[in-house]
Amino acid sequence: MSKKITRRSLLKSGVAGSIAALLLRSKPSKAHQIKTYQNSMGVLVDLTRCVGCRSCEAACNAEQNMPVPAKPFTDQSVFDEGVHGHKRRTDENSLTVVNRYDVPGLDHPLFRKVQCNHCQEPACLTSCFVAAYTKTPEGAVIYNKDVCVGCRTCMIACPFYIPTFRYSSAFDPSIVKCIFCYDTRLKHGRPPACVEACPQEALTFGKRKDIIKIGRRRIEENKGQYEDHIYGEYEAGGTSWLYLSSVPFEKVGFDTSISHVPIIDHVKNFLGIVPMVLTIWPALFTGFHLLATRKERRAKDKSTNGQEVGK
Amino acid sequence: MKRIVRTAMMFLLTLWLVSPARAFTAMDVDDAPESVTIDYLQELYEKVEFDHTMHTDMFGCNACHHHTTGDSPANDSCLRCHADPEPADDVSCSGCHEEKQSGATLSSDSNSNVYHIDKPSLKGALHLQCVGCHQSESGPTGCLDCHSFTPAGKKRFKIRE
Amino acid sequence: MKMFACQNENVPVTGSNKKDGTRWGLKERLLLGLTFAQYRQQFQRNPVNWMLLLIFIVGVPLLLQRYIFGIASITHGSNDYPWGLIIGFGLFGMVPLSASGFLLGTTVSLFGREDFHPIERLALLNGLLGYFFAVVYLEVDLGMPWRLPYPMVVSYGTGAVLFLVAWHVATYLSVQIAEVLPALFEWLDKPNWKYYIKRITLGLTVSGIILSTLHQGALGALFTYAPTKIHPLWISTEFQWIHFLCSAVFAGLSMVIVSSTLINKYMHWRCGKAFRENLDKMTLGMAKGASYAMFTYLVIKLVAIAHGRDWEYLLTGWGLYYLLEIGVGVVLPMMMFAKGARDGWVGLIRVAAFITVIGIIWNRLNTSLVCFNWQMYQEIPRWKEVWLTVTLYALYFITYRFIVYRLPIVYDWKES
Predict the structure, then answer these.
(1) Cβ–Cβ of A210/B143 closer than 8 Å?
(2) Which residues of C touch A296 (CB under 8 A)?
(3) Confidence check: pLDDT of B16 > 70
(4) Which of B82, C10, C98, C254 makes a 20 to 30 Å CA pair with C147?
């Protein structure tokens, strides 16, 4: 090289290089990175088939020994019982609810079943600081009430507003949510109670990878009758309960702003710096301390030296 | 339920088969049963006495039995494979639609030649076919319009007397 | 109290011995050197005590109701709004205001700024009590408060942000207790016990900075678990933790200014010479630091909006509310701090500090309650929940006052 490398040129190139490195960082792969148990189960919910009979709610109530509701499950007036102008949601006595949507332009209402979606990388699980949630190989996201502290972070984290809390209990509260009938059925390879109860086969049970195929086949075979999208395939990193709809999903109460990465990915910006702070801060601040007190220490050394010299 | 219906159908079919002058063409509506007893949901609901003749008076066989009676399928998308159908041995719903959902036993690893991966179970098939048609053509669509509750059903749905 | 100080030369208690050389007994120290009758007299004359009594008369039964009948008897027991005012104010609001501990501890012990020494203990106490009562608020809000130690000893969810918060707050509380213990030891006439703590001061300070950085940031990161639920102007998944950390800096400093202002004004008899003489200078210094932190905060907020492309939101109703919060809560006091620090207007700084404290609580309540579920109905807490929150704050207040009345926090203990 003909040019001499001066301190200034080194500094300039160093700064330029750092800026370039910061700006031109290679983006992580945009491919859908979903972790799965290869053979986990799922349920395909077809909104074109549901007629709002609430057999699923009744079956769930019986299977999970929930309390008797105020209105029988044949009562269709519950669909008008929105609180604060909102549709029904799960609560400590209802692990699943059906909502009715009167979509303008359609001659019949659409119905949607709401329950835990048993996500592939659940937000509830990743946010729980006592590891109360477990994703089983069968696909269910189950809850251990023996370690739960009642902090309700999982309720904050769930993008679908599913977990509910037994606030009414002072001495035995817990989170309440659908567990995919894990203890009584899924563990033994059987479909959950709601799936078996549905007369219209709006709920199709099978391996997640298989029911995605079924969903795609249904969309293909019935051109124009379905939105070309399986809700839950990628949302929040992918869910086990997947949905087909004949109208755009936001019209039937789905949150379409949920990104296609697991919720924990949003938190990783902070989690990533934790080890950095733990390792760098001690040295950094000890260094600051030495810098800040150097005058004092110099004065102290001088006085001790002075004393020694004076001896 | 399937045993009774299947027995009835087998009986009729045998009659039809051993009848010497019969050639292999689409089935004849006159050989269909007048009424079919569907008692599949016995636990929660009472059995249904299905008026078969009323339906055969209004619609062709392929409206409900797809192409199993030998008629061309009503749905165009089925024509791709079933353009020239032959009558099946068993045209009852239960002959093809099983009690359990096929998805539960479907494995994409095994038998990849099966096209119909989306076959509903018997209960689903009955409701999707019957209620679906009733919704578009007019007919009973409410659950209790066709089958009333058994005491167990009332308990399941938490109906107070 | 001033009246008794004029009557009795021994009052207030400033050291181990009375003027005649006899030692103060523990009971006398607890009663501020007054007789029981005098103590009761000054207690009754203070209007604040009557207000506190009113708060507790309703508040204590509410507290009992919460524990006997469950949270649903006090709050709406909302599943859509799992966190309400108790956590929104008690934890998210009080923790940044308690950052004063590590800030002044670092300033004095790490950066060697001995000129802030007179206010260091007040800042440490402010920090300790703030965190301690944040845990008290947590124990009221937690569904199973008897299981508080679970993330420490029973079951570990190590990947969760709250796991970090739990461990750090627990560790940091120990650090802060250790940093405030010297004051207690002096008051108990056990100055020798200070030796062991003095030896590890630097270590305590550095761990205080590490722990504070992480858990102040972690409280912000908690909200990144619900990016779809909080209004985009109040949530930034990349920068939320920095927002909360940076705002904790000026929150802690402002809280110390507020606290020292109130103590200097209403408890002047308690303030020692060093405290009184240096308070204005230290206040100016803290204001300077706070204004730097506020400026940094505003820049990071701007970067977050740019990064999230949230500009359009500024033009909506929510956007105006956001600009109001930033304007009144940060920009206004920042300018007041800067002006006051430059021209020596301590009064202006004190007002700015009050505004800042309100602004911080406002921001935390916005993030956790008001702008949470912004597309849903707005949750308004029940009066019982509000009263219970105020009751717990009153408890914090009387604990704070109890300690500052007695321990050598704002005055120097005369050992003998």
Answers:
(1) no
(2) 112
(3) no
(4) C98
pLDDT per residue as tens digits for the range C308-361? 999 999 999 999 999 999 999 999 999 999 999 999 999 999 999 999 999 999
Chains C and A touch (3+ CB pairs under 8 A): yes
B 16-75 near A (Cβ less than 8 A) = 41
In chain A, beta strands by DSSP E: 41-46, 97-101, 110-114, 133-135, 141-143, 164-165, 175-176, 203-207, 241-244
Domain ranges of chain C: 85-406
Look at A72 and B158 and tell me if their CB atoms are within 8 Å: yes
Give all chains having 3 or more CB-to-CB distances under 8 Å with chain C. Answer: A
Domain ranges of chain B: 2-99+113-156
Domains with residue ranges and CATH for chain A: 41-267 (3.30.70.20)
Task: Check A206 against B143: CB less than 8 A apart.
Answer: no
pLDDT tens by residue, C198-251: 899 989 999 999 999 999 999 999 999 999 999 999 999 999 999 999 999 999
Residue B41 main-chain phi, psi, to 5 deg: -95, 40
Q: What are A256-260's contacts with CB under 8 Å, separation 24+?
A: A257/C228, A258/A159, A258/C228, A259/A235, A259/C227, A260/A32, A260/A234, A260/A235, A260/A236
Selecting from B124, B135, B144 the residue whose C-beta is nearest the C-beta of A201 gives B124
Please give the residue that has the higher pLDDT: either A4 or C141: C141
pTM for the full model?
A: 0.89
Q: What is the CATH number of domain B2-99+113-156?
A: 3.90.10.10
Q: At the topology level of CATH, where does C85-406 sit?
A: Formate dehydrogenase/DMSO reductase fold (1.20.1630)
Q: What is the pLDDT of residues B103-151, one digit of tens each?
A: 655 555 566 677 888 889 999 999 999 999 999 888 999 999 999 999 9
Residue A246 with chain B: CB contacts under 8 Å:
none
Distance CA C16, CA B98 (A): 91
Judged by CB atoms closer than 8 Å, whether chains meet at C238 and A285 is answered as no
Q: How many CB pairs under 8 A join A and C?
A: 179
Contacts of C148 in chain A (CB under 8 A): 149
Rounded to whole angstroms, how far apart are CA atoms B8 and A121? 52
How crowded is the C-beta side of B30, counted as CA atoms within 13 Å? 2
A224: alpha, beta or left? (left if phi > 0; alpha if psi -120 to 50)? left
Q: Which two tokens stand for residue C133?
A: 């009562």
Mean pLDDT score, C277-285 = 96
- Decide if B101 contacts A204 (C-beta within 8 A): yes
> Cα distance from C224 to chain A (closest Cα, Å)?
6
